[in-house]
Structure formats: structure tokens, C-alpha cells
Amino acid sequence: xxxxxxxxxxxxxxxNKSLLAAPFPCYSLSPYPSCPRLHxxxxxxxxxxxxxxxxxxxxxxxxxxxxxALDSDVPHPLNQGPSVKVKNDNSKRFxxxxxxxxxxxxxxxxxxxxxxxxxxxxxxxxxxxxNKTALWAVxxxxxxxxxxxxxxxxxxxxxxxxxxxxxxxxxxVISIYIxxxxxxxxxxxxxxxxxxxxxxxxxxxxxxxxxxxxxxxTGIWRFWEDFITVCGLxxxxxxxWSTFVPYIPNSILPGAMxxxxxxxxxxxxxxxxxxxxxxxxxGAISGWTATLLFMWMPVSQMWTNFxxxxxxxxxSAFSMLLAMIGNGLMIPRALFIRDFMWFTGATWxxxxxxxxxxxxxxxxxxxSGKFLLAATAGLVSWIGMALWRDTVVYGYSSPLRSLxxxxxxx
Length: 410
Hints:
14 helices, transmembrane, mainly alpha, maltose transmembrane transporter activity, MEX1/MEX1-like, membrane
């Protein structure tokens, strides 16, 4: 989805020349979302253009069924709904595009890694020089929100056995945690919050990887899912509300109300008080709240830019370009396997976080028109290519059918 969406924070003082810190998205839902070529439980070979056409159609037959919004959370898409039928003369194209979309999504790790390292190195240099004040420019609460989003998406992809997406989200969790640890060392983050965060991160990584390898008790995994569902649903309204403070009263009421609602929903789902559709909805909450958290980040950033135009000077055009590229690389794969949540998060992040901030920088004369033109041409061409190629490999006459399947299922 990764997670692939990135939260930018303004630099502290010009003298410190601090870069923006940005939680790494997902997809990055992202907003989010990189997928493996085949599920590990399928026991099928990796896609290859040399695979026999008849066999390849069998191996990909049910896996690439459209995933309706509420079914995005289902662990094994192989068992979902009617299968997608691919014409025999399109089988080679289908296999090739399956292979390349997996490569693209795996390649998203590179721009995301480049995006995080400068901030981590800068923080380390400031700490070693005793300049702890510079790190106070990085909002630890925003970083914590991004960390929670990455953990939720890591659980989403671990349950679906999406190997390359797991790598993207794990890299996001680790990179954000390193920044949070640096903030704690600079006393910019309260120690008790850091300790709790450390326990949650360690538990989350261990549980997700145990579950991925089939070594985790079902009851423990359900408890973890309930935990991230409650945390995500509590954080989302609170983050959205806090964005507009002081124009609205500072209050924890949105988060508190959401917490109560989330706990009630989880209890009802686990005690059989909800319908099958209701249980499915509760199961999808954690992934969707993570995606929506990432989707809110560019809104928050643009609101900050609107209120404080000088903050634009703290934004790195190269960082925003990397954010756009990283999320854009995951769009073809999310579209190809019909994962609506992942497609939503990745597309939103590419358009509104990466490209949206590039537009803001151009408006405030921080970048040249040539830079904006190149970014625009690249993004439009990439999305257009993804839609066109998906239409061709599925044998459709219009990309609208691909998008319809993506949103509504088959």
C-alpha cells in the first residue's frame, strides 16, 4: 500500500540546516502498499516468461482475482471468488507483467532507503556534536503515528504472505524506530513513551515474522490484530483533529471516543455479536486505518505549508521526488493483483505527498519549472503506462474495466 507515505516535519533553525524527518510509508494505504510474485503457500514456481502457457494460467488462475475493499484483509487470495480468465494468447504478456510488477515493487526499497538515511545521519552528527536542540524540530508524535502505520501494514502483508511488501514495511519500521531512538537520546521524546514504543516494536516484529513462517499460535495473533486495530482506530481521529489545533480546541476527546468504539467493536466481533460482514469489516479496520493515517500525512503537511510558507524552505525537493518514485513503483503491482487498499495508499502518496509537495515548492519558488515539468511528465507517464499495460495483459478494451474490478471486484 509501502508502505511504500511520509510525514515531513519542518527544520528547526536555519543555522542547524536540519533536513525534514519523514516517516516512511508503504506502501509503502501504501496508502497505501510490494508484493511477491507468488504466495509461499502456493507451492508454485516464480513467474517466468519461459513457463508453459497452460501451466502459467493455472498457477495464476485464482490468485489474481479482484480483491473487494472489505476482503483486502483476507490472508489467502487464492481462495477468493471467481477466478480471472486470461486469454491464451495473452498468457506470455501476463507472465511478463507479473514478473516486472513484482520487480518494480521490490525496487521501491531503494528510494525509501535513500529517503531515510540523510535524516538519520544528520541526527547522529547533531547528537555527537552535542547539538540536541536540532532534534526537537522533529515531531516525535508524528513519527510515532507513522511507526504505528507501518506496523499495521506489516501485519496486513505478513498475514497475506506478501514477501516483498513485508521487506518494505520492515524497513519502514526499523528506519522510523532509529529516528525515534535518536529523539529519545536527545530528550525530545519522553523516556516512558520510548520504552513502551520499544516494547511494541520488538513484539510486533517478532509476532509478524513468527506468523509469516507459520510458527505463531492463532490466539496470540488474534490478540495482536485486535491491539493494532484499537491503536490505529484511536490514533486516526486524534491525528486528524490535532492537525487543525489551535483553530479548534485542543482535545483528546476524538481519540478517547474512537478508543471506546474500537474496543467495543473488537469485543463484539470476538464474541459473535456481529454478522459475518461486520466481522469482516472489523478485520479490515487495522489495514485501512493505517492507510488512512498515511493518506492524512500529506493533508497535514500541506496545511502546515499553508499556515507557515517559510517551512517550505525546510523541505527537500529530492526527498519529495524519492517519495513520489517509491510509492509510484508500487502502483502497477497493486493494480495488477487488484488490491484496492494498497492501490489507494500508494497512489495517494505518490500524487498528494510526493507530487503535491513538489507543486507547493514550485508555487513558493523553491524549485524551477523544469523540475516540476520533469516530475509531472514522469508521474503521468508511469501511471498511464501501468493502466495501459494492465489493460493489455488482461485482454480488456479499456483501463476503466481494470479500475472497476479494482474497486468493486469481479
